[in-house]
Prior knowledge:
alpha/beta
Amino acid sequence: MPVPIHVxxxxxxxxxxxxxxxxxxxxxxxxxxxxxxxxxPFFLPDEVPQSCLDISQDxxxxxxxxxxxxxxxxxxxxxxxxxxxxxASPGYVPSFxxxxxxxxxxxxxxxxxxxxxxxxxLASYGLMDLIQSCSLQESLxxxxxxxxxxxxxxxxxxxxDALAASLLLRFAMQLVPRRMLEDWILCSHPQEL
Length: 193
């Protein structure tokens, strides 16, 4: 059974906080679940809905995700930095690349670095540029129509971007089907090769 991969995207930064997050959970090539939420920094201060929670309230959710699989993002340094800003460590969790436990949010899959490794020399490795280079626009449109809230169904909507990154990962895995998880992680971090 494949290791679940949770493709995450955060909108926001350390100073203002996470304003929105989106997660696409994959079992192999299939989407098993999606989740997204707006957080207080998304709204004007006097317009924050009473039910709107800060991301710091989502610790149990992100810990459960990391215990069950590994994380992926398009430029994982941003998501890793924001996770560590809120919660320094997930505690000891499976590495999924060995029988050991680790106390980090990684190992990460990084679709920007991965495509830099797979397709060197492209003019841009931006998320939407890669979607276009890989001819995945129609696939993204279909998945966005199924999963995104209509008012957040555009680039820089957290779930939209997570869906785009998940498509790039799945397409890469279709192109090289026999590559092991450890190899995908190494391709995601070429400076470590």
